[in-house]
Amino acid sequence: MKCLLSIAVAILGFLSFPLDAGKTPAAPKAPASTPASAGDSLNLPPARPAEPPMVSDPDAGSDPYQFERFGVTAANAGEVVKAREFFQRSWDLGELPTAPFNLACLDVREGKIDSAFKNLDKAIAAGLDDEGMLMADKDLVPLHAKPEFNRILAGAKKNREAGDAAVIKEGLFVSPEGTKPAGILIVFHDASSDPMSAATPFLEEAKARNLYVAIPRGPSRVGRKRFGWGPTARALKAAEVTIAEVRQRTAGAELPVTLFGIGRGGVLAYNVAMRKPGTFVGVASIGGPFNPEGEGQQRERIRTGLKDTRLFLGVAEGADQGLVTSIRKSRDGLRYLGLQLSYAEWPGRGSVLSADPRQAVKDALDAVRPERGK
Question: What is the pTM of this model?
Fold first, then answer.
């Protein structure tokens, strides 16, 4: 089911997006155990195993994204009743905008047009913001001629514009007290997170290093008070406006800039740095892979883009095994290119962050920006 697969995978961050705007986007793929190479896409953490348990199985936990993946699997297997249960559970747990969208896809396939629009309205109210995807999706073509569909498109556009504006408006910007900053630290939070949730481990270390801290809000809403980065072009634009905003707030001072990201935010940090050779003194990612596989020309582009930048990768030892494997492959690939990369794994389970997030942030900043209090 293309409709279900494309939206669920895209919003969760498991779909490959082309680096170059001129390329034709790749066809949607099911979540894989290892992300595509950095040369082809803004690479994203791997999905968990897709084999769905019964809805009543307590091992499914309370993760709305897991239930949504189960719904995609059930829908692709033709088990519509079970898919509906999974998508509804996903909505109940996290109010993911993709959950009612997916239910609307099932509705259209079953000829339930009124129900489809009710679910699309619910998706818009929850933050669905991609009118281009709504127009392009084949499952929704039967709705295009109906006047209600224009309302859905307008709602998605409004959400997108509001989300783009919120990158700065709802971001977190903290300047050192009583002194001029020695540098700038830009932190990109993980998918399904927010600036305040990401801030705590960074503020103490930034203070010790006399750094101005900027934590933008992801432009895409992906659940109850949670935000993500959306497709590659939108994520890169959010990074651009953040850098410009920080330069303005620091009076245009030519301060050294370090990029740091958690999970998908780490993937974004590496992609931004690769496109702007020599702009950043350091790039660190905890839980965000960046594996430079691909054709020779693309690998050279990555090497050239990152060769003058201190690099760091790290992950919790007990994170999803597919993610840990991908991070290790990224480490090996970057070192193979001769790049100056530091690497660490820390104790911790069930998260990209370690059991001691502050220590992990310190280790990463020690590697990419060792100066303290200067």
Answer: 0.82
